[in-house]
Amino acid sequence: MEASGGIDNPAFVPSSPSFRRMAPEPRAEEEVTSTSYLSGSPEEQTPPSGPPEQSELPEQSKPPKPPKPPKPLKPPKPLKPLKLPKPPEPPSSKPRERVQVQPVELEEGLCGWGNFTPAYLQRWNNPKGYLFYYCLLALTQGIVVNGLVNISISTIEKRYQLSSFMTGLVSSSYDISFCLLSLFVSFYGERGHKPRWLAFASFMLGFGSLIFSLPHFTSGKYQLASVFKDTCPLTGFNNTCQHYITSSLSNYLYVFILGQMLLGIGGTPLYTLGTAFIDDSVPTHLSSLYIGIGYAMSVLGPAIGYVLGGQLLTIYIDANVNMEIDITEDDPRWLGAWWIGFLISCLLGWSLIIPFSCFPKHLPGTSVVRAGKVSQVHQDNNITKFEDAEFGKSFKDFPASLLILLKNPAFMCLVLSTTTEALITTGFATFLPKYIENQFGKSSSYAATLGGIVLIPGAALGQILGGVIVSRFRMSCKEAMKFAAFSSSAAFLLTMTLIFMKCPNEAFAGVFQPFKGAESIGNITAPCNLRCNCSRSFYYPVCGRDSLQYFSPCIAACTASDKIEHQKVYYNCSCVGQKKRLLSTVEGDVIDAQAGKCESRCKNLPIFFAFFFATVVFTFMSGTPITVAILRCVFDRQHSLALGVQFMLIRLLGTIPGPICFGIAIDSSCVLWDINDCGVRGACRIYDNPKMAYMLVGISFVATRTPMSVGNTFPKRPTVDH
């Protein structure tokens, strides 16, 4: 147009060759072209609606050149997109595509069964509703597995004539079952219906509890043994070695093992699929809070189990049978109703089957939550495998998926840190009552109560605090790992301070102090009690008026006993030395000894509790951040399998060997063993307190060095937005 002297008509400007080059471009550029009409002059904002040469040529003064007008008439075709009066799409197109990139197969449905989806059930169809029932299931599992089983094991041992090795096998059956099934359940359950897996877990927890209580109803009534005399007989008697005759009651061992393994089957989906379902359903910053609350409830479960089981043991074992008994709880022959708690747990477990079965496969909004998350997975060549939607659906993919996890350095460091934490916590949880009992001279029941007061609230507080802190500061994977490393380091330093709160050995006749008239130590048999022929398998400590502690009234050579205000006292004790304190009855009889241990001279118990409580809080504070970091550093489709591997290794390297290592360390500090009439060594009765403290702190020192460096292991790689 410029080269010729033709008509200067603005209608021909869009028909230039430059517009012809823009026509084939994508839709986004067409939208930019269309917006140019809206931003120009009023004349340019009105797009041409018809043939320009017919509508505007007659108004011009100069005649147009005939050959040139047809050429610019062809391009108006590309202007057809202007007929779509839609607003510009670039701002909203990206988010829409991001949501569609994530799972198309997510089944987000209503709460109910099939077509039965009443409106009142939909108020539970959200992460908070699921968390409520998850906490109830975790609470039930903690009550039965870590509470009732532990507090009932000694009663079961006496009732069914089981050895300590057999009861230890019963306790380990849960972990064995968990280890065998955790990988397969987590692998297959990842793509399955996780809430229904938890409904199955509820059924198995109830069924396992029922099976565990079954021996009580099939073994008949409990037969009381003859009364045992604890004083020195006036005329000596000869102890005879009577070998233990295996009773048919010991065959119930296999029923208890079966019950524990069923409980293990029920516990496997809870901490693998159940935890992964929480993480899938809530945003990243809330995931740690929800998981921390769930883990805290699993810690409160054992506390409730101990309290409930302790109260039930005050009821006679055959409470379901109408019979009169003439013994009290103080009698060594007393056995409590251990089986009632397992029936209650059975009902609690089965009551959760219906709520879990009505949840959909994915909660509403899961797709949006997943789309908004940023994966911080360790980057390597394996990412191409997870681009295949079919990967992980068949068992042939299981070895490859497992190998990917084992080659993930961040994941393995996190898992190893949890195993060392589990080794220490299970070891201390198992032997803390024994440690308090021997270090501070408390009774076994009082020591167990104090241990529960420190462990349970401290563990629950640590789990909740860890989740709240990670959620409040919206920590990334690396920040959560650094926070876990800080918590473990603080727990490590606090553990080291426990070495300064040990107690000296108490005055014990024949062990740390000689008997009256004797010079040597290391033997509880002395000339003063030689005529009594006392059994070393009957440990019933008494405190003499000379402030020495004696193994039993018989070892103290006491010949008479009485009860004064619910306190058993002893007279005429030949081995008790000169009076250092005067105890007498109303009648004027001198009391030589009274039942129980002497009052400890060590006053470090309050300081020990304060520091140990802080140690427990910091130890469990790292639990939730580590779990969150594990879920962030693995692929989405490996969440359940990653938790399965974690809990399997926790049991193989933590909870199973933990009590064994602590038990070996404590046994190495034993100075007086229980030896029965046949010469067979039994349990340890007296420990060397300083040596015990050094051994336990030494194990903690070795185990806690691993998690201290976890925070620096996360690879500095780019994250993947998916």
Descriptive overview:
It is found in: Cell membrane. Residues 130-722 form the Major facilitator superfamily (MFS) profile domain. This is Solute carrier organic anion transporter family member. Residues 33-47 have a biased composition (Polar residues). The chain is mainly alpha-helical and 722 residues long. The chain has three domains: 121-221 and 249-378, Growth Hormone, Chain: A (Up-down Bundle); 394-505 and 603-717, MFS general substrate transporter like domains (Growth Hormone, Chain: A, Up-down Bundle); 507-599, no CATH class. It is 51% helix and 5% strand. It contains 22 helices and nine strands. A five-stranded antiparallel sheet has the order 3-2-6-5-4, with no helix packed on it. A two-stranded antiparallel sheet has the order 1-9. Strands 7-8 form a two-stranded antiparallel ribbon. A hairpin with a 5-residue loop joins strand 7 (670-675) and strand 8 (681-687). The relative contact order is 0.12. Mean pLDDT is 77; it is low at 1-61, 79-104 and 707-722.
